[in-house]
Automatic annotation (TrEMBL):
Domain HTH araC/xylS-type: 193-289
Family annotation (Pfam families): AraC_N, HTH_18
Gene3D superfamilies: Homeodomain-like (1.10.10.60)
UniProt keyword list: DNA-binding, Transcription, Transcription regulation
InterPro entries for this protein: Homeodomain-like_sf, HTH_AraC, HTH_AraC-typ_CS, Tscrpt_reg_AraC-type_HTH, Tscrpt_reg_HTH_AraC_N
Protein name: AraC-like DNA-binding protein
Gene Ontology molecular function: DNA-binding transcription factor activity; sequence-specific DNA binding
PROSITE patterns in alphabetical order: HTH_ARAC_FAMILY_1, HTH_ARAC_FAMILY_2
Source species of the chain: Pseudoduganella violacea
């Protein structure tokens, strides 16, 4: 049975996002999500994000694993992650969600203040994404955050504080394991996050797994194993996905010629690029423009 709070959250999202699609807000890093019909799986490159579900169902496909997230739950992606995602709409009710980019500077600041009272988790999440149940405390923050988005004054005064509280409540709950492990520079998660950031920002450069392992102070075999455990991809597969997504942006948003986009992201062969592009997205680079 849907609670009064859940119904209020749905009403606010419907009012804030009357049109289908992803809608940015005046609060940086906060996006409204709405889909009026079921969508098949599509390739995404997700930055560290919390997706709080209000209505409908979404699924993330990472290798052989499937992550279902629905009302009363949220998806937390703690590292930049390529995966497939679909949307399921039932009974004519649109999928509604709120996506909040994870602010790692804020996470570190909160952890420093929580250090004396918050013990680290014994067992770290095996993946850089997880589905977590939404508790009443976090649900209350979500409702107040949505209310602030409907008022310029409230957003200016309360918005940043509400984002800070949301990060804090996630850290307090089950989803905090993902963020604490990400922030643990002495564990195996922190160096892998840095490697992901390296590949995400320097994707056009040649890949040296040995060099990445050295930067992480790990053997090549240990680095490769830890990287795949967290991201579901080998470093080479991860880099390929990042390059293809970046090329997709160049072609679709900047009208870049296909060959130029391929070379810009690090491909030496335009034909190889076209084959791998179609394998990932299901259509050719020419069809993306």
């Amino acid at each position: 049975m849907t609670s009064a709070s859940d119904q209020a959250i749905v009403r606010r999202l419907l009012a804030l996002a009357p049109q289908e699609g992803d809608t940015g807000t005046r609060l940086p890093g906060v996006t409204l999500m709405r889909a009026n019909s079921t969508r098949p799986p599509s390739a995404v490159l997700q930055s560290p994000t919390i997706v709080l579900m209000a209505q409908g169902l979404k699924r993330g496909f990472l290798g052989s694993e499937v992550f279902h997230y629905q009302p009363g739950q949220y998806l937390i992606v703690s590292v930049p992650l390529p995966f497939y995602c679909d949307t399921i709409v039932t009974e004519g009710e649109p999928m509604l969600a709120l996506a909040v980019e994870i602010d790692m500077g804020l996470v570190f600041d909160l952890l420093a203040k929580m250090q004396a009272t918050l013990a680290p988790s014994v067992e770290l999440p095996s993946r850089g994404m997880a589905v977590v149940d939404l508790d009443e405390t976090l649900r209350d923050v979500l409702e107040r955050l949505l209310a602030s988005l409907g008022s310029n004054e409230e957003l200016a005064v309360l918005g940043p504080q509400l984002l800070r509280e949301l990060h804090y409540r996630v850290l307090q709950g089950a989803g905090g394991d993902c963020l604490r492990s990400l922030a643990s520079w002495h564990g195996r998660r922190g160096p892998i996050f840095l490697a992901c950031e390296h590949l995400r920002t320097r994707y056009a450069e040649p890949l040296s797994v040995d060099a990445l392992a050295k930067e992480a102070a790990m053997s090549t075999s240990s680095f490769h194993k830890a990287f795949k455990a967290l991201t579901g991809h080998s470093p080479i597969q991860y880099l390929k996905a990042v390059r293809l997504h970046k090329a997709h942006e160049l072609i679709a948003r900047q009208d870049s010629p296909v060959a130029q986009a391929a070379f810009a992201v690090g491909y030496a062969s335009a034909s190889q690029f076209s084959r791998e592009f179609k394998r990932l997205f299901g259509y050719s680079p020419a069809e993306a423009s």
